[in-house]
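Researcher: Quick test of sequence recovery. Tokens follow.
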């Protein structure tokens, strides 16, 4: 059985043909103009899908198209209810539109939930049953798997774990509240803080790099630069406090980290593990929570979307 899994983002649409045994067969992608009408954007996406499938020998084995869509969706009706970065999409019936033009069954899922489902079924999470996935990218997204089932919230709105508060009256968040995890733990937030601190501390090693961002601040911290150590310590603290909230509520077996900042790999895992292990509620007497990096990286959402058509 083969399905297409498509990850729809603000700057590009990326998809893949994926087999139900987890084999990824081929990729396709196209640029995305978030200011274009949904009819225009998704017409181009359907054309790209039809072209992609045209000469594939497995074309007739495709059982459907799963779409990971940013925003709040009505999965039953196939409608994008609200997509904060793509306001023109609100109310658009994406399922009808794509089914009509590709002649294949279409299912939708929130993009963050889709990535969590992909990691849970085909990635680092496949041997675990209770999983929280946290994506540290432009924002902080994520998904919750409880006893092998995606917890997708009322009406499939998705779990907005990035918008839980880690600092009352803290930094302004894009959602309108202050002190959200996203305002501290996203790659965007870390990038901004790094650049501000580099400006304030001209002597910092950070200013020796050709460009200053997340990668550089972790690198400079490992080399002992005091400004970078401070930025990274603060970052680890807020991210870990957010994670502790999820540990205490959900008691997951594993927390999966994904997105740009997760490229820091084992260093990030070790730092967060060290922080949470002494602060997790009833720590000595509680089951251990593992911190791991998602194995599928940017393909997680494609796997999750395709898996909407696979049997468990
Ligand atoms: Zn927020």
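Model:
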């Amino acid at each position: 059985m083969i399905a297409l899994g498509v990850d729809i983002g603000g700057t590009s649409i990326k998809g893949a043909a994926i087999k139900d045994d987890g084999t990824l067969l081929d990729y396709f992608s196209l640029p995305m103009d978030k200011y274009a009408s949904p009819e225009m954007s998704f017409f181009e996406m359907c054309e790209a899908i039809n072209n992609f499938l045209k000469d594939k020998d497995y074309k007739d084995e495709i059982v459907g198209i799963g779409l990971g869509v940013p925003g709040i969706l009505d999965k039953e009706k196939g409608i994008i209810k609200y997509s904060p970065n793509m306001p023109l999409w609100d109310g658009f019936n994406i399922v009808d539109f794509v089914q009509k033009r590709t002649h294949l069954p279409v299912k939708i899922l929130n993009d963050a939930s889709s990535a969590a489902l992909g990691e849970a079924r085909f990635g680092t999470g496949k041997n675990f049953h209770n999983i929280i996935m946290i994506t540290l990218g432009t924002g902080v997204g994520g998904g919750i798997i409880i006893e092998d089932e995606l917890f997708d919230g009322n009406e499939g709105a998705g779990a907005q774990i990035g918008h839980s508060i880690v600092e009352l009256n803290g930094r302004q968040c894009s959602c309108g509240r202050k002190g959200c995890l996203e305002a501290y733990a996203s790659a965007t937030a870390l990038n901004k803080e790094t650049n501000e601190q580099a400006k304030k501390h001209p002597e910092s090693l950070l200013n020796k790099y050709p460009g200053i961002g997340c990668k550089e601040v972790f690198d400079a911290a490992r080399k002992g630069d005091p400004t970078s150590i401070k930025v990274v310590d603060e970052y680890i603290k807020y991210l870990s406090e957010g994670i502790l909230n999820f540990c205490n509520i959900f008691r997951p077996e594993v927390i999966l980290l994904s997105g740009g900042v997760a490229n820091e790999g084992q260093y990030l895992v070790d730092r967060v593990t060290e922080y949470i292990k002494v602060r997790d509620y009833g720590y000595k007497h509680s089951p251990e929570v593992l911190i791991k990096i998602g194995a599928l990286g940017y393909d997680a959402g494609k796997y999750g979307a395709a898996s909407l058509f696979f049997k468990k």
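The longest strand covers residues 12-19.
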